[in-house]
Amino acid sequence: MMLQRPQSKDLTPEIPARRMSALSKRNFLFLQGLMGPFFQRIGAALRRDGYGVYKVNFNGGDCCFWHLPNGINFRGTLQEWPEALRGIIARYEITDVLLFGDCRPMHAEALSVCRELHIPVHVFEEGYIRPDWVTLELGGVNGHSSLPRNPQYYRNYAATLPVAPVHQTVLSSFKRRALEGIAYNATDILTRWYFSNWSNHRPWHPIVEGVCWLKRLSRRKAARRRTDRLCTLLEATKVPYMLFPLQLDADAQVRLHSSFSGIKEAIELVIASFARFAPAEMRLVIKEHPLDNGVQDWRTIMRQCATRHGVARRVDYMEAGDIALVVRGAKGVVTINSTTGTLALACDVPVITLGHAVYDIADITYQGSLDKFWRNPGKPDRATFEAFRRVLIDHCLIPGGFFSEEGLDRLCCTIRSIGVTRPL
């Protein structure tokens, strides 16, 4: 196990006396973030406000998006990591740990260490409600969230809160996310000789993933044409359809917070149930995740599965398009635990979840079996969902986004504003 000593601290800017006591005792340690500059932007903002800021880099991709002082290169093994983290926390008097996603192996170990040392862990994720929100919860997110599943809790809690402020949309660029992912993976590959013990939590080699991203970008026009034809067909025929939005195959939401080993298994189960129990006039639209890397050919996998079950003429694959428009036209949404579920619920579209989801709550989502959902999906209780949404905004949602300057600016501004008065 090897640790690189952080660089010298820069001069701390003057802080008003009324805030000095609150800030002087806070030292933040960043672990892995989303591929991109988000953690660097947050770190820079916290440094300007007088916090101590440190960052552990596990590979070259992490270094690529961290150009602030106090970077710590961890080159050890997963087995050596817990003891190394204890040493970092003690040496730099860390009071708070920040990370993106709580299921990566290094992060799972970090959460265990921090519980032992009573160090709060602030976990970022993409928003429970999208677009334009980011999740920030203490101790865990998604299947590890501390949010209860009792509908009455949300109705009671929301009744004590003021009306939510007007929320503004933010820009988000698919191209920017793809290019940042390519930059991260390329730097990771080029520095594997230095970070020799690093093992990516993702199941594909970075070269494979990078090549597939480039291929997917090059095929966007053809995918858009196929999507436009499908949307025209659905609009012209007014045929009823259910929507099944795919999630990312490597997502911990699928592999750790559901019974599925991957998306292929979920496709098989959904199509088999649709073939046996859905009304004959109904169609099933399977929507590709907008950030899928293209390693798996889901379009072909879907077609083969639908053919085996005798419903190839009734199952459609959508590669692009505005998910909000597709949701609004659906009779219901079948999901593992995608945040498309909350988008559907906001539109009064019935939702069934096949995995563990923070919004899988009685009176909000369908609580029966998938086989029965096709014919009688019911309706979500609007008041309960609105109460749930209001509590989320108060408890763990931050306005902004990762993939535009406007979105990052809004995130940084909000996080700075809550830095003294909330746990972060």
From TrEMBL:
GO terms for biological process: polysaccharide biosynthetic process; polysaccharide transport. CDD domains: beta_Kdo_transferase_KpsS (cd16441). InterPro entries: Capsule_polysaccharide_synth. This is Capsular biosynthesis protein. It comes from Kozakia baliensis.
